[in-house]
Amino acid sequence: MSVVGEIHSGGAVGQPMSRVDGPLKVTGRATYAAEHPVPDIVHGVIVSSTVSRGRVISINPDRALAAPGVLRVLTDLRGVNLGYPVDQVNFFGQSLGVVVAATLEQAEHGATLVDVRYADQPGRSDIDTPDTTPHLSSETPDYRRGDPDGALRGASTVLDHTFSIARNYHNPMELPSTIAAWKGDRLTLWDKTQWVQGNAQNVATALGVPPGNIRVICPFIGGAFGSSGRTWPHVILTAFAAREMRRPVKVVLTRKQMYSGVGYRPTSRQRFRIGASANGQLTAVVHEGISETARYTDYDDSGMELSQFLYRCPHVRSSYRLVPLDVHAPTFMRGPGTVTGAFALESSMDALAHELGIDPIELRLRNEPADNAFNNLPFTTRRLADCYRLGAERFGWSRRSPTPRALREDNLLIGLGMATAAHSNNRTSATAMARVHDDGTAVVASATADMGPGTYTSMVQIAADALGLPASRVTFQLGDSTLPTAPMHSGSKTLASVGSAVFTACNALRDSFIRTAVVDPASPLHGASPDSITVRDGLLSARNAPGRSDSYRQILQRHNQTHMDTQQSWGPGDFNQHFSSYAYGAIFAEVSVDEMLATARIRRIFTAYDIGRVINPKLAHSQALSGMIAGIGMALLENGITDHRDGRIVNANMADYLVPVNADVPELDAVFLDTEEPTADPIGIKGLGELVMVGIPAAIANAVFNATGRRITELPITLDALL
After folding, report:
1. How far, in Å, CA of 562 to CA of 455, rounded?
2. What is the mean pLDDT of the segment spanning 121-135?
3. What are the two backbone dihedrals, phi and then psi, of residue 519, each rounded to the nearest 5 degrees?
4. Are strands 143-145 and 316-325 parallel, antiparallel or unpaired?
């Protein structure tokens, strides 16, 4: 898919450029996974299990097959790798088959007529069940430095809290959707995915076909927040059904099926102990956590990372365990693990500040580390203290009273709270292609995705400046597995990784034009030093001789070429073995709590971030606001409820699973420090998308404490916690 940029005076990077894909989206011309026009298509609907554990005795499709429009009922899934044993029921809502019909309505009706008989067994879906057996995660080993248990015994002040966070579901606007079409032994998938190339590989493995025979296309994503990072069973089943039917098949999960068809942020429990001297120096931190996972596969959402390095502390111990249950697999959800662990860490830091009578910001400043004690590596840039100071000034932190319940407006108790945000600056190898045509336009491409942060736009800006072209003459292509290799669009790594590859490719292409010009006797730049050539608006000029110039168009025309291109890769190399690179932020929240009704409402949130160079201030600000809104949902509203008798998700709909709406969203704002990350990547940035969720729930909970004197240890914050 191609999207064309727009022109701005001066360089494109750093400008608040509007989304280049915005007009397509607001006019309805952006094509999402389920909207691609594929001839001769039929519709599939998943048949889902109604027990959480057991064995299927029989599936009788007769009534469904007799219904109008129903073409096939596919239930023999042997030989199809869905990621779990298909000969048993592993969780409520598990895919047992696909009903294929001429229309969606006929397929939906047919799915209700399939008769499934079970030999069900008692399932376990409650993380607090006493007889579960937690196990160590292979991704998060136990960690210890110093003697944390001894340090706790000798600490002047010791706090011990247990924190609980409910399941959270992504609930994007666009439902999980897939269209599959075979042409001989080659498959095309139009799928909602954050990783087109990973999807191609996973479907190939599941169906036993060569990966090169599968093309995955996804130009637009209607929100994902991590939910489309994995290849879920419905994607594989759509491809399987299309192969069986010998015609294209479309499957769109219902909203209810989304709750058991893709992952979620898992339920978690954390015990956090913190010890400090009388002057607020941290002496010990012990962080222990558990979270739910599926019995058939592990998902690690540990959240131990920040506790291990964010503050200076000589004695630290952390451990994390997984509780296997008869549930669908959890998965990444914005700020995975980090936002969970930050709730325990930052709530505990606030509680310690209150106990010691020290301002929460001052406590954090007293415990600023010189380097990363977890891996003994120096920080690249860490301007967290500047975030505290700027955020406190702009937010008006000085009006906060350290005494809970001190601020009041009629029957409303007013509280101010803050928290720290940090997230690793993830970067990985990526490849990009850059091409300049003889009409002076450029196309840049990589097999990445855009689920909302503005990948199309930021890549256009980076490419335009590197090529010396107006953004209006640059097109960026993504969302096709046949494009140059890119990592999963997740973990706040796309801009740093793919952006660096785009920067590298465009620089290489620009330099190729310069070298071509200076060795060409017909060029006005012949004989000039390549280092003296600058490019602006596609015009190559000698810095010391302004009258000597050439252009991309003229160079290509003289050489009878329609275009010149290059493909280049970038990777972080061994950087992570020598430096510790993180993005940081300071979160400030103001809440009101109705003393009579015990209802909490957010009045405003302000954040200050250290994210290196800001490629697009408008997009960055939008990302920050979206993270705040998601944090409000996690703090006050979102709670996936399971009936543990059968593993059914009780509130698997948008009426009963609450997410923030306009009335829940207060005054929000964010600022970014004027800085760059000079060593981690060539474009000087740090990832933002995950960071902006971290610390928001903790800041809200800390503000509620300041308002009421009630220390919040469970999310979401419900009325009974404030009564």
Report:
1. 28
2. 94
3. -100, 0
4. antiparallel
Backbone angles phi, psi at 640, to 5 degrees: -75, 120
Residue 518 vs residues 97, 524, 529, 548: alpha-carbon distances, Å: 64, 8, 7, 11
Residue 689 and residue 623: Cα distance in Å, rounded? 6
Q: Are 197 and 170 in contact (CB under 8 A)?
A: no
- Name the residue among 714, 642, 650, 657 with its Cα closest to residue 124: 642
Region label for 14, one of left (φ > 0), alpha (ψ between -120 and 50) or beta (otherwise):
left
CB atoms within 10 A of CB 150: 12
**Shared-domain flag, residues 422 and 274:** yes
Specify if 335 maps to a domain.
yes
pLDDT attached to residue 131:
87
The pair of structure tokens assigned to 694 is 């971290």
- What is the pTM assigned to this prediction? 0.96
Residue 712 resides in a domain: yes
Q: In this structure, which amino acid lies at residue 579?
A: F
- Per-residue pLDDT, 8: 37
pLDDT of the residue at 544:
84
- Note the pLDDT of residue 16: 98
Active site residues: 690
Tell me how crowded residue 8 is: count the other CB atoms within 10 A of its CB. 18
Provide the token pair at 625. 């606001």
Domain boundary among 221, 239, 261: 261
Question: Is residue 666 domain-resident?
Answer: yes
